[in-house]
Amino acid sequence: MKISTAVVCDDALFMRKVMSEFLREAGVEVIGEASTGVEALARYRELKPDLLTLDIVMPEMSGIDALRAILAEHPEANVLMCSAMGQQALIAEALGVGARDFLVKPFQATHVAAAIQRLEGAA
Question: Which of 21, 42, 94, 121 has the greatest count of CB atoms below 10 A from its CB?
């Protein structure tokens, strides 16, 4: 499956901007952003992107809870979890719930491009 659209969810504006730029460099159009898990769920429902990047630690609803809600409605969703160093247990939980891949912050453009290639190859 070709990943051509994405929604970026992170509570930090700076991280949303960095991820959006890296996705654009990888040829993916960013069609929406969210700053909470609740917003991520709403944006996914509304926009149905090929990819959702989702921070694990966010206000209102954690990334893992948002992941559960999204996959309950859309089991085909491609969700790329993002996490800070030292959150390995949360990453393992997210993968167990159904995240397709993860990136550890701080990440680089090459890491984002490689994750997209893995997701496209797995579909």
Answer: 94
